[in-house]
Structures are given as C-alpha cells and as structure tokens.
Design goal:
homodimer; alpha+beta; Trna Endonuclease, Chain: A, domain 1; 7-stranded mixed β-sheet; two-stranded antiparallel sheet; globular
Amino acid sequence: MMIKYPNGEQYHPIAKAKKKSKEDISFSSANRGMSLEEDINLSNDHYLTSGILLITKRPTPIRVVKVDYSKGAKIIDAFFQKQSTTDYNGVYKGRYIDFEAKSTKNRSCFPLSNVSLHQIEHLKNVLNFGGIAFFIIEFAYHDQVYLLDASYVIDCYEHGERKSIPFATVCEKGVLIKRGYNPRLDYLPALDNLYFNK
Amino acid sequence: MMIKYPNGEQYHPIAKAKKKSKEDISFSSANRGMSLEEDINLSNDHYLTSGILLITKRPTPIRVVKVDYSKGAKIIDAFFQKQSTTDYNGVYKGRYIDFEAKSTKNRSCFPLSNVSLHQIEHLKNVLNFGGIAFFIIEFAYHDQVYLLDASYVIDCYEHGERKSIPFATVCEKGVLIKRGYNPRLDYLPALDNLYFNK
C-alpha cells in the first residue's frame, strides 16, 4: 500500500509508522492533548496571517430556549444542535472551499456513521455549485491525517456496500497531510496538489 | 439621483416611492413583520432548491459557560457573542461569496456604526483572497434594499470623513434589489451584474 505525498513522493505508511524519525516523535508528543480541531484552527490562523487563505469555523449551532434579560441577556436554557453543514469553509484563490474534519480511533477504517446525511447533502451541493469539498480525516491510532476529496466519501456513503472506508483506501485515494510546528497541519500542499494542479 | 437596475434600466427612486404600483404595495404589505434576515434566508432557500447557488447563514456564536449533563447536556449558563465575521457566505459558480445584511431606519444615510471593525477586517481578507464581498442594505423608511460592494464600504469606513454613507450614494454605487414573492429578495441579478459581467 503506497501513499501519495503532495510532492509526488511515495512511501509505505506501516514501515513509516514503525520507524519514526526524531522529528515525528517530537511533533507527536507536542501534539498530545491537542485535538484535530485545535490543530486545524491554529493552521487556519497561520494561513490567514501569512496571507495565504481564509477559512473560518462555523460556530456550533445552539438552540436558545430561554434568556434572562434581567441579567444582561444571560442564556439560561439552551441545547446544542447538530451541525447541518460542515465545520469549515472559506476562500482560496477566489475559489470556495468547504470541508469537514473527523477523527477516528478505528485502526482499520473510517466509519461513515461519523458523517451525517445533512453533511453529505451539503457537500454534494458545494460540488454542484463548483466549490471544492473535502474531508480531513485523522486516524488517531496511526497518528496520520489525510485530505480526501468529498466526492469519494459521497460515493461510498450512497453506493458503498460497507458503511466505512478502509484505512488502506484513504491512504491510496487521499493525500497525507504533514504535521509540523506551524502550521500544525499543513494541508495546503494537498489542496494545491488535488485542486490547483500544483 | 438615478438608480442602476441590474437590467440597465434607470429610474428615480423618490418618484418611484411616491407612485408605487399595486404589485409593489402588495409585496410591501406581505412583507410586514418579516425581517431582512428572514427575507434573505427564504431567498437563499429558493436559490438552493432551484440549483442556482448555495449560501448558508453562520449560526450566532454563543459562549457556553455551564452545561448540566444530568439533564442531557442542557446549557444553563451562556451568552451571545458578537459575530466576528459576517452573517452569510457560500458559493456561486465556484466563486466564494461573503456578505453582511444590515437594515437601517435612518432616512438619509447608512450609519457605519452598524458595522464592526472585525467585519471590515474579515471582508478585506475575503477580497484579498479573491472572494466576492458585499453588503445587502435595507433602508426601511424607503422600503428599498441595495447590494453594495464591500470595497466601497471598507473605503468609507477607513477613509471617510463621515461615519455614514448617504442614501443617495448607496443608490448610486449600489444595485437595487427587487422584492418579490419567491425569491423575496432577488439579489441574483445584482450579483450577476456586478461580478459576473451579465
């Protein structure tokens, strides 16, 4: 099983996992306790301040039931709602970008139960209107993160026999994202590679 | 003072306001109690289901202070936060679209106190990264809604002597949006006209 790297290199992920460089180990431990979401948010901050791209995270939708105005509009009854779209969207070189980030502890596959039908419908719309749509999938066990085009996930969701995508398939169809210090998750080369022919 | 219409027609807004057609009056009364936000949301629903464009409204950010997990994750202490970006973004013909909707009761101008510095910074970023950014401004007194390019608002915000944009200037620099039944606010011709050379 070989992995496509944005720079065209290929390597064997299992061998790589077994024989980590010092750099990888330090990033890995530096990353302990950091969630995928935090990594992406910090990377987006870096891309924005570097003048590269603009991605914003949609706030978690909350249904407000009761507000106490005697205490300066304090919300005293509300509940979280499921995101009906995706977590992230923004602009790069004028193009519309939309993606969902998911982390799984599963060793062998990405379970599609992680993805809601609403999100699939939303991503289909993004593609229909000419936008760029993908998933950033973290396999926590392997300490690897991939960028996978949404059309492949949509296809598996709608026509796949299994309700999951094997790890090996994500490695093959996706592009491995390099972890680093800043940006923590450098997904820009993958974006350039897949959608901007770089 | 003349107004640019997306179809190239021009007309005098004051005369128009005085001499409303039956159609205008019925739309106007049908519109009573409907907010600009509702009009835009319904229009976006229409555009989406018609397969034209995808615009989503960002949820209002809420800072959650305390959650009662004994009652199934009920939020019991939280407060509203100011939107640091804009209310709406999405995709049309692959391009990134971002806009803020504002309504004013002011007869003679659009006060820039309605716009936060964060929003200005965000819209500047959108333009820098090649996105399309604008305001939809409702003058409630005149019952008129305009689409105005963000670069003009940014310029007035940063370099204008007055902290407002005169109504006459919005009429001149912006494009009037037609009210209707469905879509309630047909801003697509203005979008096509300003950014897609239609």
